[in-house]
Amino acid sequence: MGGLISVIYEGLVNPATTLLIISICWVWVKIFMQEWDARHFTSSYADVVQRKQYWRVFLAPISHTSLPMLLLNASLLWNVRIIEHKYGFLYFLRYTVLLMTVEATMAFLLIYIFNRIIAQSVIRQIITQFNTLGSSGIILSWLAFQSVTDPMT
User: In whole angstroms, how far apart are CA 22 and each of 25, 103, 105, 123, 138?
Assistant: First the structure.
């Protein structure tokens, strides 16, 4: 009973982390129950840059199609709550949105560069249609931040 109360307390003290975990779980349930199509959440160069569907940059990180990936990302997010606790709700939320944007920008920049280098149109088309989904990149960025700022945690 004490462990459950501790988890609830940590969830209330770290609202951004808790909301992210609830969001990724809720979206996964909707996708798993086939109420939502996962293709509407994926982020690709063709969708975001060419079709200007910028909202995908923010929806792809909270979407998962496999249970193991969801569980891994949710548990890693729970471990990252220490950053929110230490630096505050707004800091964590602001930089999470920034990390989403930077991650997508860097991925699309690499795809753009590969498109300029690669001469074969078939490979170019495959690269621009490559879809991403999940929050692993953002979580890894937070874990790297945590390891640099507080290596003992």
Answer: 5, 22, 26, 38, 16
- Give the tens place of pLDDT for each residue, 80-136: 999 999 999 999 999 999 998 888 888 888 888 877 787 677 777 777 777 777 788
In this prediction the pTM is 0.79
Bin 134: left if φ > 0, else alpha if -120 < ψ < 50, else beta. Answer: left
Taking the C-alpha atoms of residue 31 and residue 33, their distance in angstroms, rounded to an integer, is 6
Give CA–CA dist 25/22, Å, rounded: 5
- Angle at the Cα of 48 (from 47 to 51), degrees rounded to 5? 55
Distance CA 46, CA 130 (A): 8
H/E run at residue 43? strand 43-44
Cα–Cα nearest to 70, from 28, 14, 40: 28
